[in-house]
Amino acid sequence: MRYKILGKSGLRVSELCLGTMTFGEEWGWGASKDESKRIFDAFAGAGGNFIDTANKYTNGTSEKFVGEFMSSDRDKFVLATKYTLSMDPDDPNSSGNHRKNMVQSLEASLKRLDTEYIDLLWVHAWDPMTPVAEFMRALDDLVSAGKVFYVGISDAPAWIVSRANTLAELRGWSPFVGLQIKYNLLDRTPERDLLPMAKALDIGVTAWSPLGGGVLTGKYNRENSDPKRYGPEDPFGKMMLNDRNLSIAAKVQQIAGEIGRTPSQVALKWLLQQNDRGVVIPIIGARSATQLADNLACLEFEIEARPLQAIDSLSKIELGFPHDFLEYEEVRSTVYGNTFSLIDNHRD
Fold it and tell me: Which runs of consecutive H residues, i.e. helices, occur in the chain?
């Protein structure tokens, strides 16, 4: 296991992050406490120090398990949890990014995790009802109080994140050092705005659903791709079953077979090799220690240029306006005249 510096901070996190939404069986799937402990120990034993949970996961059981598992060596781990999602569907203030929910959620998480601080607190999702200035100032107060060390944001538009960090920079507040997004070979839409923004602002990226809701594991093909067969463990996975995605999954399976690896390992390694798009850290989740061991093996090899290009070409998306428009030769010549090819741009 190697380590990455998370965004514009000095925090060192492992190149893979352990997602613990599978810790607990309250949602009708997931891992028992004993199996969750085996998963946690295997990840830590491989050098992993970056643990991701949330107050909502398995109704709080995930946080309880994580807190117990890391209690004997708490300071070694980079513990990330989240707030935003509703914990009481009948209470309008039990959800959202406003200060009241933030403070109450954090205090509840600290109790479940049995810890005095959170290394990285994620805003779990953009809440358009709460002004950006309110939650950025409130997050900075938590950092100043020593209850949170760093802050990040998940599932938000690029313009919100850039506005939030610009506001934090101008007012001396704690900026977002991490961005959590859905990113995999089947869904590369973050390449339009979110990833370029993160690279430009030096924000570390963690990618959830790196295996495309299970489609990239190799267990689905055109003969067994009926969405009704999909289990409850990934409600987003059934939305990924279409001809395009199954073609990409088939290519991943082909390459995996040629190089003696599993499809999951190839899909994860593709993410790890996106070096030109900034720091991307896959969040790996597992319901068994065996699944985790398979995922960890993605660190043992590199995908060579030719198969990497084959996967990349098949899964590539159109960036759309204005990105594609600005790449047209006619537009470039209008903007730069005859000088574009003569300029060495180190920012490109």
Answer: 33-45, 61-70, 99-113, 132-144, 158-171, 194-201, 243-259, 263-272, 289-296, 305-315, 323-327, 329-336
Catalytic, 57? Answer yes
pLDDT digits (tens, 9 = 90+) for 22-72: 999 999 999 999 999 999 999 999 999 999 999 999 999 999 999 999 999
Instruction: Tell whether pTM > 0.85.
Output: yes
Number of domains comprising the chain? 2
End-to-end alpha-carbon separation of the chain, Å?
A: 29
Please check whether residues 328 and 204 belong to one and the same domain. no
CATH of the domain at 91: 3.20.20.100
Residues 333 and 237 in one domain: no
Catalytic residue among 57, 83, 150, 183: 57
Quick one: 232 and 246 in the same domain? yes
Domain carrying residue 329: 323-348
Q: What is the pLDDT of residues 224-283, one digit of tens each?
A: 555 555 555 555 566 677 889 999 999 999 999 999 999 999 999 999 999 889 899 999
Do 202 and 332 lie in a common domain? Answer: no
Query: Is 254 buried (19+), middle (13-18) or exposed (0-12) by CB count in 10 A?
Result: middle
